[in-house]
Amino acid sequence: QLHRRGFRCLHGVDGSAGMLERARSTGLYQELRQCVLGQELLPAPAEHYDAVTVVGALGEGQVPSTVLPELLRVTKPGGFLCLTTRSNPSNLRYKRELEAALGQLERCGAWQKLLAQEVEHWERATSEEESTQGTGYISGVVYLYQKCPIPPLKEG
To answer: Where is each Methyltransferase type domain found (predicted)?
Structure first.
């Protein structure tokens, strides 16, 4: 979808060599690197990207919410971060932790929330217990933040 909307310089990271090979086969990415989010620094210099997305990885047992400062590090001031997580019962504890970390970074002036959009039919459920109200789907949330510009240094 990003490519169809004109985004042509896409870089990707994944902890799995197999997933990187699959991404490489699409021909959509200019750079792909192996990196375990939350355990390693991202393979990019500070303030490098106009936009950073994490879709389908922020969840219980996957990427820890402690990765947020690292995502901010590689985003240019004024750049955007689009993050998602699930709202299914087994992910609610993680979602609360994530939202607390998102809010803390907003309160300290690191970024500004532009959107927190609930999506009812985020992905197909793999069990009836995970299904939102018996729909066969799991709900989720899309968060969009803008990194705050660096304040000018005060003279004197």
So the answer is: 4-82
